[in-house]
């Protein structure tokens, strides 16, 4: 185990992966704050286990975020608590804040590169666990699906969209529409009459696909995903949804 410290932040190389965590040094021992256990899981939770923290990190895996972006994606978090969580992540060295040059001239938050590398598989695994929980959850109304779709708006547009297309999503019993463009991301409870592409699947399959737990080839071969119409347009959109590069 190689440990290099900066202030109270340590970057541990474990199984070839760099993981940023907070330590206090006491008598030559590294002692984690909070749970006060030597378990790496407990140490990680000391840093990222607070309410909302993992969701903020989830958002940052897609793109740098402004304070208002976090508020738009997570409307239930108060401004004071959001400020506290972001400051804690900065103090730990996991998140950095920088000023964008003109014409943007705004402050954004982004993941420190080594933290991003270490956190991405963790968030992917949590997404796959969420998909496992979805499998036994009752099917919700279309409005719940629309809320889930709207959650992706900031992530997709923050990544940059250089295409315009109209999509139809058939997910289980739900049939919705989605119009996407460089500055457009509009879900609709009414499916389009002439979509550029139609994606037929289910929430579990797409969640696994977007979190590196499934591949396009396997999903299509198993009949869990069907794309009709403009395949390139469909894949371009699915790529924007995905936390990691979409696996073929």
TrEMBL record:
Coiled coil: none
Signal sequence residues: none
One Gene Ontology MF term: DNA binding
UniProt xrefs under Pfam families: HxlR
Keywords, comma-separated and alphabetical: DNA-binding, Transcription, Transcription regulation
Domain HTH hxlR-type positions: 39-138
SUPFAM superfamilies: SCP-like, Winged helix' DNA-binding domain
Protein name, as recorded: Transcriptional regulator
Organismal lineage: Bacteria, Bacillati, Actinomycetota, Actinomycetes, Streptosporangiales
């Amino acid at each position: 185990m190689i440990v290099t410290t900066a202030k109270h932040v340590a970057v541990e190389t474990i199984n070839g992966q760099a993981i940023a965590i907070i330590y206090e040094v006491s008598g030559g021992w590294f002692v984690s704050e909070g749970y006060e256990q030597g378990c790496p899981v407990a140490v990680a939770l000391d840093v990222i286990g607070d309410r909302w923290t993992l969701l903020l990190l989830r958002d940052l895996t897609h793109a740098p975020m402004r304070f208002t972006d976090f508020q738009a994606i997570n409307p239930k978090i108060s401004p004071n608590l959001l400020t506290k969580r972001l400051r804690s992540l900065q103090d730990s060295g996991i998140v950095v804040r920088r000023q964008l040059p003109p014409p943007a001239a705004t402050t954004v938050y982004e993941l420190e590169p080594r933290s991003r590398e270490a956190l991405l598989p963790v968030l992917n695994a949590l997404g796959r666990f969420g998909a496992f929980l979805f499998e036994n959850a009752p099917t919700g109304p279309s409005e719940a699906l629309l809320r889930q779709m709207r959650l992706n708006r900031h992530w997709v547009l923050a990544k940059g969209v250089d295409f315009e297309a109209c999509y139809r999503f058939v997910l289980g019993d739900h049939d919705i529409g989605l119009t996407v463009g460089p500055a457009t991301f509009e879900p609709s409870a009414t499916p389009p009459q002439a979509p550029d592409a139609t994606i037929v699947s289910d929430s579990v399959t797409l969640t696994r696909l977007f979190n590196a737990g499934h591949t396009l080839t396997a999903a299509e071969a198993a009949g869990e995903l069907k794309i009709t119409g403009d395949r390139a347009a469909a894949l371009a959109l699915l790529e924007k949804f995905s936390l990691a590069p979409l696996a073929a």
